[in-house]
Amino acid sequence: MPEILEFTARALVFLLGVGIVFAVISAAVRTFVLPRSAFDPLTSLVFRAVYLIFRMRANTRKTYEELDSTMALFAPIALLILPVVWVVLIILGYTLMFWSAFSLALYDSFSLAGSSLLTLGFTKSEGVLSLVFEFSAAIFGLTMVALLIAYLPTMYSAFSQREVMVTLLETRAGSPPSAQEMILRAYRIGGLEAMDGVWHEWEQWFAEIDESHTSLIALVFFRSPDPHRSWVTAAGTVLDAAAILISAVSRETPPTARLMIRAGYVALRHVADYFAIDYNPAPQPSDPISISQDEFNDMLDQLATRGVPLKPDRDQAWRDFSGWRVNYDRPLLALAALTMAPYAPWVSDRSIPVAFRRTQRAGLLGRLGRTAPRKR
Asked: Average pLDDT in the 150-156 region?
């Protein structure tokens, strides 16, 4: 009877070790290999734990620049911690397997597992089956290193492609970027026709965001080199600029603007889906949005004073704008809050913590000689 209980206990421990190893393999495949968005609980747990630590540190910072400097380290450090956690878990899994299958002491099992996985070779056992386990551990260890080496260049290449358009937006929309400034600058340099060629470029940019930021999810948290730039605020600025032109400006807008908006809100929704962000997938044009009609009319007044031709029916323009904005309003603001995006009108100004919102309004907008948008 005691022999049966011992055999059962060792069998259960062996299965637990196998389960741990396969859980790590599954996490590595979903995170590094699978070319699509796939939620993995182990990877998510590591990122959430590191994120909470950084978020607590960021909440103690007094300026947005300090917050940005702190959060800039989050994604790189989380990526470095992830394979370390995986290696530790694989060592634990093989320790349990060696202990249960070969009746080794716990210390000897741990030493053998670590030596095999890290290919150190200072410990070895006898027997064909034991060698098979040692070789498999060594293969997994080398595979983890190879995956990480191949993963980082791919991620930084996608990051570089993303940041080119984010940086170029400063010339078109100012810093912090705003849809109003984007339209005014285009109007000043030769008419609104100058914007017609922009929408196709941003449609492609959103398609790349959809592909890269759902398969390489850490990219969502990679911050721009300039603390006052963000891929989230850039996305919101361009989407709002196109929506304003379509709904309120008295000129024919090319179909590419509408296609770009659709590409934009589809990409933002797909990224939001990974983080289980709640939004209405089929919103109605009359559904409420985070921007008030007063804010919209104030913006139109400023465009009109600079000579931009507007449609006469302001109420219809508001309904049309709201009908576009409602498609991306919730995912945009949620991602701005999640990534702690810098201040930008109609995007992060209604999602970031109040303390930093005031700091950025007083600092950035005061330096640029602008007036902060009125809160809803």
From this structure: 82
Three-class DSSP category at 249:
strand
Q: Averaged over 152-178, what is the pLDDT?
A: 91
Residue 49 lies in a domain: yes
What is the SS3 assignment for 277? coil
Domain that holds residue 218: 174-368
Please say if the pLDDT value at position 346 is more than 80. yes
* pLDDT tier, 369 (very low <50, low <70, confident <90, very high otherwise): very low
For residue 326, which of 290, 364, 362, 300 has the smallest C-alpha distance? Answer: 290
Number of structural domains (the chain) is 2
Please compute Rg for the chain using Cα positions: 26
Collapse the DSSP code of 310 into the 3-class scheme (helix H, G, I; strand E, B; otherwise coil) and give the result: strand
- H-helix segments, the chain: 2-28, 41-58, 64-71, 74-102, 106-117, 128-173, 179-188, 198-215, 231-248, 255-274, 293-305, 314-325, 329-338, 354-360, 366-368
pTM: 0.83
Which residues make beta-bridge pairs with 310?
Answer: 249
Question: Looking at the structure, do residues 278 and 343 belong to the same domain, yes or no?
Answer: yes
pLDDT-based confidence at residue 1 (cuts at 50, 70, 90)? low
Whether the bond between 225 and the residue before it is cis, its omega within 30 degrees of 0, is no
